Amino acid sequence: MMMDATIDFLAALCMYQVGADPEELLQACGKVLDCDEPLQVEMRLELEDLVGRTIRGETYADAAHAVRQWLGQRYRVRGATSSPTVQL
Fold first, then answer.
1. pLDDT tens digits for 35-73?
2. Pairwise CA distance, residues 68 & 81, whole Å
3. Quick one: which of 79, 15, 7 has its CA closest to 37?
4. From residue 8, how far is each of 28, 60, 73 by CA, in Å?
5. For FRET with 37, which of 10, 11, 17, 57 sits at 20 to 30 Å CA-CA?
6. Residue ranges of domains in the chain
7. Crossing angle, helix 22-31 and helix 2-17, to 10 degrees?
8. What is the pTM of this model?
9. Measured between alpha carbons, how far is 88 from 86 in angstroms, rounded to an integer?
């Protein structure tokens, strides 16, 4: 079942990068918050590029926490005008 969650997370990340609603990515993050499955190095590097910081840890849960924090900061700074539904 966790494999489906990791696939959903990666798919939501790809969709976000091409303009999908950040709420979808946020929901996908929630599905992997307790996933201790290791994150591939290439994916961690891609996520670090997206969020602009080092992701501490090596699991999908670590990545999800970093992305959730980044989304929260990104939309708070922008006043949440582009996505008023994003909630952490």
1. 999 998 998 898 888 888 888 888 999 999 999 999 988
2. 17
3. 7
4. 6, 11, 23
5. 17
6. 2-77
7. 160
8. 0.78
9. 7
- 61 closest CA partner among 41, 86, 37, 44: 37
Length of the chain: 88
Cβ-contact 53, 65 below 8 angstroms: no
Q: What is the pLDDT of residue 26?
A: 92
Tokens found for residue 37: 């499955």
pLDDT tens track for 8-36 = 999 999 899 899 989 999 999 999 999 99
Torsion over CA: 77, 39, 11, 24 (sign):
negative
C-alpha span between 82 and 41 (Å, rounded) = 31
